[in-house]
Amino acid sequence: MSVSCGVECALVFGCSRWALKRCTRVGSDDSETWPLATHDEFHPVPRLCRLILAVYEPDLRNPQCPPDGGYRLNPDWVLKHADYEQTLGRSPPYLIYADHDRKEIVVAIRGLNLVKDSDYKLLLDNRLGMQMFDGGYVHHGLLKSAVWLLNEESQTLKRVWEDTGREYQLILAGHSLGSGVAALMTVVLVNHRDRLGGIPRNKIRCYALAPARCMSLNLAVKYADVIHSIVLQDDFLPRTATPLEDIFKSIFCLPCLIFLVCLRDTFIPEGRKLKDPRRLYAPGRMYHIVERKFCRCGRFPPEVRTAIPVDERFERIVLSCNATADHGIIWIERESEKALEVMRENKSETITVPPKIQKLERLKTLEKEHEDALQKAVSLNIPYAVPIAGETIEIGIEEMETETEAVEANNGDNPKAKPELSSRGTNWDELVEKLFERSESGKLILNRELTTRQIQ
User: Fold this and answer.
1) Please, what sign has the CA dihedral across residues 295, 297, 298, 302?
2) What residues does the Mono-/di-acylglycerol lipase N-terminal domain cover (predicted)?
3) What is the distance between the alpha carbons of residues 161 and 199, in angstroms, rounded to a whole number?
4) DSSP 407
5) What ranges do the domains of the chain cover?
């Protein structure tokens, strides 16, 4: 009798302790040790939020639901505004915009439409560990959507970039479902930059707003220099490794699912999560907008913290009434605009004195953080993680080969380069499959020779 009472007391104590820790955890706990982001690195975010919101408008000259202050874009600079009829369900609707004031070419991709079957089919086209790519795992349906969009628009992007003097940045931005498509488009483009006229890596940027977990940890860290994920406070989507298809099949009972996932993840050791190569994560460098604090009512002036986390990478669900509201693109736009205003005010205080953080010094800090994150991934034995030295060598070899082919093509000595400039454009399906080989059953598997070269 006493033994059973002791077991019961221990069980009650354990459950109470778990409930207390979960109920007192707030979204700001995930980034409490991260440094603050600067104005220069965060300033594109509100503008890109407005561009994504513009995708929802049928007529940008007569907007129906503009955000505060309007979309602040020039409709004459919109190169393409594709809806569901034009994408044929292969991709969420998107917008291509040439911002000549800021010298940017922007591809903005909207998020999930709850009443469109094609978006659900895109999410359901996946299975845990189904798709390997570039030495890691990615979401199969989102990768297919990214490749389809590249087949449709890469020639347009290449033409515009070359016509504008090869000076513009290429920015891919997406929200929710669109964030996964944009992130995987970025991974493909970075590996085949020569197909866009040899655009430098430092001119390609991706901003994933309320990001879907679409790639394995080694890829999320590897591409942290070009992919930036923006998370608003308690947003549930970047925090749950539950497959996207399971999340959105339960969209009308989402609080129940979040609670069950929270309970399940409590019993999964951190080491086991890190060693699972199939586990998907939010991509790239993380920017966390924090506006609420524990046991304090209301919203506070938001602050933005940033890091490239390897372990503890938004792994714990926050049981909050704002877990779903913080996922909305409207709230992300509003709070990021407020955060940018706070940064602007703080920056204005240093007008008459040297700035606290020099721009060049901050750039070196970002590069150092990326190197440290890559090295930490290797030290934690993350599957397929590679150190920065190996990646730098590979990029250097790729750039040398691209330059050599370009010189030979200009001199007429390389006949193999000429067919790539045909009117049919680049076939991105073929380029992506170069990273794979097919098994006897016809399934795509990772090319062993390429994997070995990357690990070495």
Assistant:
1) negative
2) 7-71
3) 8
4) H
5) 34-386+426-455
Residue 236: which of 302, 319, 124, 126 has the closest Cα?
319
Please give the structure tokens belonging to residue 288: 């966390």
Q: Which two tokens stand for residue 282?
A: 């939010």
Find, among 305, 319, 302, 183, the residue nearest to 258 by Cα: 319
Identify whether the C-beta of residue 307 lies closer than 8 Å to the C-beta of residue 286: yes
- Farthest-apart Cα atoms in the chain, separation: 91
Tokens found for residue 16: 């109470």
CATH code reported for the domain at 34-386+426-455 = 3.40.50.1820
pTM over 0.85: no
**What are the per-10-residue average pLDDT scores of the chain (456 residues)?**
66 54 65 92 96 96 92 96 94 96 97 87 79 88 94 95 94 96 96 92 96 93 96 89 57 58 64 83 95 70 94 81 90 96 79 59 86 91 75 41 44 39 63 61 48 39
Segments in 109-214 forming alpha helices (H): 117-124, 140-163, 177-191
Distance CA(18)–CA(84), nearest Å, equals 45
